[in-house]
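Design request, tokens follow.
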């Protein structure tokens, strides 16, 4: 979401040896990194909901809706919301 809003974010990663990385797809080039590769990103759910994610990012950027309202709405669904799942997958990147 930070990328979509065009913010610059460069966190300091503490204890890099404990960090698990996520890949977009299994790649044979990185066999020596198997110890730190945790899994892969679900690209399908991102592609299926990308238009909704862009609309949401635009609403936040234009201050049409507050972030707290969006979070409360996404958290209120009893079942897993596809938009919330897509945002979680994008957050892994």
């Amino acid at each position: 979401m930070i990328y979509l809003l065009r913010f610059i974010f460069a966190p300091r990663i503490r204890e890099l040896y404990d960090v698990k990385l996520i890949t977009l797809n299994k790649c044979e080039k990185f066999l020596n990194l198997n110890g730190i590769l945790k899994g892969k990103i679900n690209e399908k759910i991102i592609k299926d909901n990308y238009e909704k994610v862009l609309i949401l990012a635009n609403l936040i950027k234009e201050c049409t809706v507050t972030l707290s309202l969006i979070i409360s709405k996404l958290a209120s669904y009893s079942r897993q919301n596809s938009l919330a799942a897509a945002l979680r997958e994008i957050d892994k990147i």
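Comment from the thread starter after seeing the answer: thanks! Residues 56 and 70 are 9 Å apart (CA to CA).
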